[in-house]
Amino acid sequence: MRAISPHQAAVADIGIRHLRAFLVLAEQLSFTQAAASLHTTQPSLTRSIHRLEEALGARLFHRTTRHVRLSESGVLLREELKELLPRLESVLTPRHDIQTLRIGFSWLFPDELLQNAIAGFERTYGVAVDLVRRDERCAGLDEGAVQLAVLRGRQPARGLRTVRIAQEERVAAVSRRSPLARRRSLDWTEFAEHPVMINTVSGATQVRDWPEEARPGTVTLCGGFVEWLELIAEGRGIGVAPDLVMRRNPHPGVRFIPITEAPPMPLWLARPSTGAHPLAIRFMERAVAVRQAAA
Q1: What tens digit of pLDDT does each residue of 149-161 get?
Q2: Rounded to an integer, what distance in angstroms lies between the CA atom of residue 49 and that of residue 37?
Q3: Does 116 fall in a domain?
Q4: Which of the 8 DSSP states describes residue 99?
Q5: Is residue 281 domain-shared with residue 159, that is, in the same domain?
Q6: What letter does residue 179 receive in the DSSP assignment?
Q7: DSSP alpha helices (H): ranges in the chain?
Q8: What GO terms are given for molecular function (predicted)?
Q9: What CA–CA distance (Å, rounded) separates 10 from 242?
Q10: 1 in a domain, yes or no?
Q11: Radius of gyration of the CA atoms of the chain, in A
């Protein structure tokens, strides 16, 4: 194989950002204005131009303390790039193989938490986000029905890559006919004194979440959120839900009251650990960035 010359190696290190920086500066002839247009700093823009000049072995601009003008080499490069760069950027623009990114959730989607991430993602990638309710442990992610899922409770199942996007407070779900409905709060250890309904399919609270000495003595296992809610409304027992439910009020026969001394409920965004769709990875990155910016 033929050896690459030092000049070829230098040119190979030039990226689209260097060419874009040159073209914007060539049009505006002001480092201040060009840096603002590129959403970068003047030192960063200067480094990009120096890097391009070094790679090409030619001065592209004549600079003084007050003026910037193109050199002869700069004029030639500008004329070439005015046609070539837009075509190159167009070729490299992603052609997504899906029109909709599906995010599964079992119940109570935290739209206030993720709405900024969803709006920014749709605007950036031109792909709609579809929210899919699946009353299942992994909200359809393990079956391939969705590309991402919002999950609650302890660390989700193996085979998933997760990021914790929030922690929610727990509240008690009690029948409005129960004397407990008149309480302002319920202590976490008091659940040992009452029958407790556990949603084993999509619930985020399990018996092991209580300390061993304070675990509920009477437990009824339910097969989903709707069944869990109806049994509580009938007075068969009490349950635990994230505090988001207090703003949604999903059943007129159930009252939700705060719990003291309860461990927080982790909220996860999950995708498959292998074979995840690239857009699912991008959405997860955006959700984390939005969370960090809001912290």
Answers
A1: 999 988 777 789 9
A2: 15
A3: yes
A4: S
A5: yes
A6: G
A7: 6-12, 16-28, 31-37, 42-56, 72-92, 111-125, 225-233, 245-248, 278-294
A8: DNA binding; DNA-binding transcription factor activity
A9: 56
A10: no
A11: 28
